[in-house]
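REQUEST
  id: r-88c1
  op: predict_structure
  target: Lipopolysaccharide export system permease protein LptF
  payload:
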Amino acid sequence: MLFHTSFRSELARQFGVSLVVLITIVLTFALIKTLGAAAGGKVDPADVLLALFFAGVTQLPVVLALALFIAVVGSVSRLYRDSEMAVWLASGQPLRRFLGPIASMAWPVWLGLAILMLWVTPWTQRETVQMRERYEKRSDLSRVAPGQFQSSRDGSKVFFIERGGESQGIGRNVFILTQKAEQEAVITAAEGRVEWEGEDRFLSLTNGQRAETLTAAEGRTVARFAGYRVLTDAGAARSMDELPPKAMSTQHLALSEHPRHHGQLVWRVGLIWGAINLSILGVGLAASNPRRPNNWGLVAALLVFIIYYHLINLTEGWVGRERLTPAQALLSVHGSVAVLAISLILLRDEGLRFHWRRFVGATS
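RESPONSE
  id: r-88c1
  status: 200
  body:
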């Protein structure tokens, strides 16, 4: 009981500290990236905090897995460094007994990570994609700065307005130049307002005129109007199949037959399995000799995490290119790591037991 309580409490402290530090680092880099995207016109400046929240939630599963791995390696390494491990080993607590306290402390983290990977992060990815698309496909009128000429996205129109009240969304003294293959039209109006009709956006003009010139016939017509509508954006909501795989729901990926969708599903399941494997692998990697001046176990543990994380990313590509089936990818990578982690703990236990028996025999 004392063994479980003491080790579990230390593991929780290490996990809390590691999680706070990693979240701070991730949010700092995410903030820099989000501000850069807002400055480059890819994200609405008003949505910076929302984009930062989505970015943080998207990276949270990896942060949780790494924080738990650091907590396991750090806690077990400290026991070796302070010679407490010798006490536990002498009292009949081999390394494999540490898996119990680790599992009892880490299972809520594993459960939360699974919920994030299977349901939450796909939602945040969808919201991020839709938020970017809404800003990129905002009406041409809303992208025009007062007193400046602004081209439409396809280059077929040029706008100039003197904006009115922002709350009413009215532009005053609107000028529009429309160019087609054999036609050029200049539209001027006293006021303009953006209106929605389904997924289509129209610019509704009042009190103006339209001057149309045919380049081939050299003819020109002028028409005055009290009301006129110009289509600025035509679009429809994207279906689930049109979204990138990382933004698709887990249920849709499981029912799909596309290899890329299977690759994304393997990546999500693999990160959950990988977090469990890393928690077990950290026990064997942290075992070290406290008399050594340099503890290379921590460096090796960090390298193992980097290599393993890249292998998880590679499995998505292997399955997406149909080099491996989902079962083959999961078993070849995560199954091998699970066997390696358990074998390393058993090897450490047998080695420690051999050295302990030799020490007892020499002193008796």
